[in-house]
Amino acid sequence: MKRKELHVVIGGGVAGCLAAITRSRAGYHVVVLEKERARSPGTYPVCTQTSNIVSENHSGAEYPFDPQSARDCLDGRIVNERFFPELIYGGKTYSRIIASRSMMEAGHDIVGQCRTNMGIIRSHYAQRCAEDPANVVFGAPATICREVPDVRGVHDVAAAFLTPQRGMNPVLVATVLDWELRQCGVDFREGSTVTTVNRLEDGRYAIEYIGADGVLESLVADQISLCAATAAFRMARKLNPALEVPRLFMALREILYVDLPDGTDKNFTCLKLEDSYGGMLSPLNDHCAMIYHPPAAHIMNLVMAPDTCEFPEEYVYYLRHGHPEMRGRAVWMLHRLRDFYPELARSKILGTYLKVAINTVSDSRVRRNIGVFSVHPGATMTVLPKWTMCAVNARKELALALQHSVAVGNVEPDDVPELLAESMRTCWRTRPAWANDDEALTGHAKKHAINMAVPEVLALRFGDHVAPVTIDRAPVAMAEDNR
Ligand SMILES: Cc1cc2nc3c(=O)[nH]c(=O)nc-3n(C[C@H](O)[C@H](O)[C@H](O)COP(=O)(O)OP(=O)(O)OC[C@H]3O[C@@H](n4cnc5c(N)ncnc54)[C@H](O)[C@@H]3O)c2cc1C
Question: Domain FAD dependent oxidoreductase, which positions (predicted)?
Answer without folding.
Answer: 8-262
